Amino acid sequence: MTTIVGVIGGGQLARMMIPAAVNLGIEIRVLAENDGMSADLAAFGVGDYRDLEVVLAFAETVDVITFDHEHVPQEILRELVARGIAVHPGPDALLYAQDKLLMRQKLSDLGLPVPEWARIENVEQLAEFLADHGGRAVVKTARGGYDGKGVRVVSHAHDVDDWFMALAEDANGGALLVEELVDFTRELAQLVARRPSGEIVAWPVVETVQQNGVCAEVIAPAPHSSGKLAEVAEAIAVAVAEGIGVTGVMAVELFETTDERLLINELAMRPHNSGHWSMDGSTTSQFEQHLRAVLDLPLGGTAARDAWSVMVNILGGPTTGSLVERYPGAFQAYPSVKVHNYGKDPRPGRKVGHVTAGGDDLDDVVYQARATAAFFQD
Amino acid sequence: MTTIVGVIGGGQLARMMIPAAVNLGIEIRVLAENDGMSADLAAFGVGDYRDLEVVLAFAETVDVITFDHEHVPQEILRELVARGIAVHPGPDALLYAQDKLLMRQKLSDLGLPVPEWARIENVEQLAEFLADHGGRAVVKTARGGYDGKGVRVVSHAHDVDDWFMALAEDANGGALLVEELVDFTRELAQLVARRPSGEIVAWPVVETVQQNGVCAEVIAPAPHSSGKLAEVAEAIAVAVAEGIGVTGVMAVELFETTDERLLINELAMRPHNSGHWSMDGSTTSQFEQHLRAVLDLPLGGTAARDAWSVMVNILGGPTTGSLVERYPGAFQAYPSVKVHNYGKDPRPGRKVGHVTAGGDDLDDVVYQARATAAFFQD
Q1: Where would I find the ATP-grasp domain in this sequence (chains A, B) (predicted)?
Q2: Which residue of A78, B120, B242, B250 is 20 to 30 Å from B345, comparing CA positions?
Q3: Picking from B142-156, B307-321, B325-339, which range would have the lowest pLDDT averaged per residue?
Q4: Residues A133 and A66 in one domain
C-alpha cells in the first residue's frame, strides 16, 4: 500500500517535493497546468484546477490533496472537503492566503501585529488614508498578487484609478487594501509547519532581501536574531498558524521596523522561497516537512546544519543556453555550493533556480552564494 | 536542451539518483528489469539489459549510460562504446567488477595490497592452498556474487565440490578464486569518485559492519581513522580508480588487519551501500557525485557535515504492513534521524531502506540510528 500525495500545480514547489517523496517512499502525483512544467517527472496529468470535475478525478487517485500555489477556487476546495477528501491546507485557511483583505481583518481580530490598514472602495477613502498617514501608502489588490504584482506604492489618491475602475466593472464588486508604508530596517520571514493534529515546529527566523518586489537572497538565521527577536517571530507565526488553522508549511513575511517591532506583511500557506535554504541547511527541508505535515506524521527537526546558510535565487537565468551549460564553471569554482535547477526555460525575471551556500563565516558564505549564482546570469 | 542520464537497472541505487537529478535539473531515465521497481518514477521502460537491441534503443535516447549494477555483459558494453555512446564506468573498468579473478590479478599487477590469493580449478589446487594457509581459506566464484552470495569459508578441500562441478559443466570453463582468511580487526570502505577527465575526490574512510555477509551499519568517518590510516585508505582507492580507469563513484572495501595493514577486499564501481550516509552526512551525496562524474562535470565537496554519521540498513522490513505505517512511531521518537524508503515490498533479508543519524556524540548517534531502524523491523 503506497501513500499518495496529490499536488495541484506543477511549478518548482511541487518539483522540490519530489526528492523528499522519493526519499520517504511516498508517491507524489502532480496535476500540472501545462505540459513540460517543473514538476513534470511526477505529473499525473495536465488539467485546469478551476474545473471541479478535473480536480475531483485527480483527488480520487490520491490520499491527500495539497498545493503548489494558493489559487484553487474556494468552491472547489469546499466540495473536496464535503466529499471527505483530505485537503491540506484546508479552504478555511487558504481563504486568507487568497484574499488580503480577509487576511488583514483576521490578523487584526487575532490581535496580531500588522501595519495600519483599511479597506477602500474609492478615491475618497484612499485620499483620507493618505492624509492620515503622511501622504504615502501601499495599495494592494485583495486577490491575485504575488512577487510584487498587485502592489503599488502611492502618494496620490488617483494613483490606482485603474484598479478602482476594474473593481467597478467587476460584477463581484470588491475593494482594495491600503496599508501604511512601514518604516522598516529589513524584512524577515518565519517558516513554520503545522500538522492537522496540532503539532507545530518552527525553523530559525531568516532575513530576506527583496529586489523589485521579488525575493533575491535569504540569510538563515537572520543576523542579530538570537534571543528575543527570534522568540517574537516564532510566537507570531505560531499564533497565525493556530489562529487560522493552517496545515502544512507556512511562511510569515515580517517587517522589522525602525522602532524594533515586527509587523506581519504577507502569508504564504505552502513551502516558500524564504525556506529553500532548508533543503541544504536544515535537518528537515521544508518540502519533506510539508509532506510529513499534510500526512499528519510527526514533524522533523528544524535545526540549522550550518552556522550560516545563504540562498540566492537565480532570476532569469542565462540569456543564451541552459543552466546546465554553466555547470562546469560554477562547479569548478564553488564545489561545495548546492545548485538547484527548476528545469524551466530562462526568461527575464523568472525564478529558474537557486543556490545555497553554508559555513561558519557569513561574509564568505554570502560571497560564495552570490558568486555561484552569478555564473547563471549574464 | 536537457541533459539526460540513462541508468541501466531499476533498483534502489537508480532510485536514489532521482533526487540528485531533480535538484540539478538533469533528466534521468531508467531501464528497469521489471515493472514496479524502486526507480519506477524515472522508468523509461522495462527491458532485458542482456539484449543488445533493447540496450541500444535505450541508449539512443540518452546522453550517457551508467548503471545500477555491474551485470551488463561485456559484449553489449563494448558495442555501445564502439558506436560512440558514452558509457561510465566503461567496459574496461567494469570487467574487474564483473570478474573477481581478473580483479585480483589486476590489483596484484598494480602492486596494491590484497590478501594472498590463487586461481584454482580443482580440488588438488584448493588442498594445496589450504595447506599453505593454515588449513582455512575463503573461496569465491569469479562471477555473480554479491551480498555474501558466492562466498564460502572453507576448511576442507571438498567444501566447494558443487562449484567445481558447476565449472566442469560450464562450456566456458572458468576457475574459482581462493584467498587467505584475513585476520582483520574490522572492515572499512573508501568511497571515491573519478570523472573521465581525471579529477578524483574522496570521502572520509568509513567503518562498515557486516551481518551474514550483508552490510548492516556504516560509521562515518571510521573511528580512530584520522591521520595516516585515512591517508593510506584514500591512496589505495585513488590508485585503484586510476589504475583501472574507473569513472563515476567507486567503493573499495578494505580489511584492517590485526597487524595494521589495509588489504583490498572487494570493489564496487557504482554508488555503494557504504556511501549512503553521504546523502545526509556529506556536502555532496554519492548519487549527486555519480551524476556529476558520469557527465564529466567538476566534482562536489566531500566534507562530512557532522562529526559522526551513522547509517543503519533496514533489512527485511516489518513482517506486516509497510514501512510508512511505522513512520508515526519512528518520527515521533527520532525527529532528526533521516529515513530512506526504497519503495520495495518487505521480504526477509532484503534491503528495503536505511536510516542515517548525525551528531557530535558517537554513542548517541549510533543509538539513535539503531533505535530508528528498529521501528521498521519486527
Answers
A1: 104-295
A2: B250
A3: B142-156
A4: no
Q: A123-132, A360-369, B1-10, B329-338: lowest mean pLDDT where? A: B1-10
Q: How deeply is B185 buried, as exposed, middle or buried, from its count of CB atoms within 10 A (0-12, 13-18, 19+)?
A: exposed
For the domain that residue A63 is a member of, what is the CATH number? Answer: 3.40.50.20
- List all residues 6 or more positions away from B203 whose beta carbon is below 8 Å from its beta carbon: B190, B191, B192, B220, B275, B278, B282, B286, B302, B304
CB A274 within 8 A of CB A191: yes
- Give dist(CA A309, CA B242) in Å, integer: 36
- Between the two ends of chain B, the Cα-to-Cα distance in Å is 48
Q: ipTM more than 0.85?
A: yes
Below-50 pLDDT ranges, chain A: none
Structural domain harbouring A149: 116-180
Of the candidates A161, A180, A199, which is a domain's last residue?
A: A180
Q: Does B40 fall in a domain?
A: yes
The total number of structural domains that make up chain B: 3
B284 interaction partners in chain A (CB closer than 8 Å)? 335-336
- Verify whether the Cβ–Cβ distance A24 to B336 is below 8 Å: no
A2 grid coordinates: 503506497
For residues A366 and A113, what is the distance between their CA atoms, to the nearest angstrom?
A: 31
Q: Are residues A155 and A193 in the same domain?
A: no
DSSP designation for B273 = G
- Minimal CA separation from B290 to chain A, in Å: 14
Same domain (yes/no): A10, A77: yes
Question: Are B174 and B192 found together in one domain?
Answer: no
Residue A111 falls within a domain, yes or no? no
pLDDT the model gives residue A146: 59
Would A106 be classed as within a structural domain?
no
Write out chain A residues lying below 8 Å of B23, CB-based.
Answer: 19, 279, 338-341
Residues of chain B contacting residue A343, judged by C-beta atoms under 8 Å apart = 2, 25
In terms of domains, do A300 and A192 share one?
A: yes
Whether A174 and A67 map to the same domain: the answer is: no
Are residues B211 and B329 both part of a single domain? yes
Query: Which residue numbers of A have CB closer than 8 Å to B's CBs?
Result: 1-3, 15-16, 18-20, 22-26, 41-42, 279, 283-284, 292, 297-301, 303, 305, 321-324, 327-328, 331-332, 335-336, 338-343, 353
pLDDT, one tens digit per residue, over B293-315 is 999 999 999 999 999 999 999 99
Task: Tell me the DSSP string of B187-211.
Answer: EEEEEEEE-TTS-EEEPPPEEEEEE
Q: What CATH number does the domain containing A214 carry?
A: 3.30.470.20
Cell 566531500 belongs to which residue? B302
CATH number at residue A170: 3.30.1490.20
Identify residues of B whose CB sits under 8 angstroms from chain A CBs.
1-3, 15-16, 18-20, 22-26, 41-42, 279, 283-284, 292, 297-301, 303, 305, 321-324, 327-328, 331-332, 335-336, 338-343, 353
